[in-house]
Amino acid sequence: MKRIAGLAAALICALAATAQAQQQYPNHPVKIVVPFTPGGATDAVARQLANKLSTRLGQPVIVENRPGAATVIGAQAVADAAPDGYTLMLSGSSTYTVLPALKKQLPYDPLTSFAPIAIVAMAPVVLLAKNGLPARNAAELAELARKRTGKTGLMYGTFGSGSAPHLAGEMFAQAARATLTPVPYKGSAQLVTALIGGEIDMGIDTASSAAPHVAAGKVRAIAVTGAHRSPQLPGTPTFAEAGMPSVSMVGWYALVAPAKTPAPALATLEQAVAGIMQDDEIRKAFAAMALEPVSMGPEAYRKQVTEELQVFGDIGRRASISLD
Question: Quick one: signal sequence residues (predicted)?
Fold first, then answer.
């Protein structure tokens, strides 16, 4: 009996200590893993959040870059981390929906490996055309693409197979009922240079990267994805305005924790992030990066992931896009 009583007392103490630790969360530094190299948009978003989150949590919040394998290395590290609220991940939708939709074997699942905290930003893309192309809007471009299908099909620049520009291009091709030829480039600079030089007919890029070239008259902006016009390209209609609402590829950034992270820790993080996203300073910083600051909680994340897995999976099958 004494032994049983002793074990019971130990168990009660352990549970009490766990509860106290959860109530005290956070009591040491928090780490945000970014599965990209430093200097990019994802890294910039994470550092903005980390700075504000540190103030709200009263603990240092550090950013750790873990690039590699198209974000899989960093994502797996977070999925396998202790679910205690001290290891988080900030990544783009390529990690949460594009890869899982187009790659069969992944060491994580976007719905079961992570506990979502919030989607914090949306990133629309813009369809660009070279200046000499005889099409001034999405309808004219779709008509031209149909005429060229099977002959000298229109070529459009992407950031590689399965990238956001590739998927957006296939969405446009399906909406236009045409066949387009994707041409991969290593990044925005190469893509825009090729478009200006006439190597390709169209290109798909982020609004922030494209806006200076559009303003300088070097390329033409045809339409942007998203629910609203881009502040960087106010004269460019959305695809919905252009009569092509199915062209809906919008990147986004979400903060997540490992699955099974304690509810009290998640609640603390959700509340902190919701408050941060109302901060004028961070909203201006995001807007300067051509990102739409948002505060969309766990249910919105699950809905977004579920819908995009279906959409991107369908596009991948129709266009024979695979990352395996």
Answer: 1-21
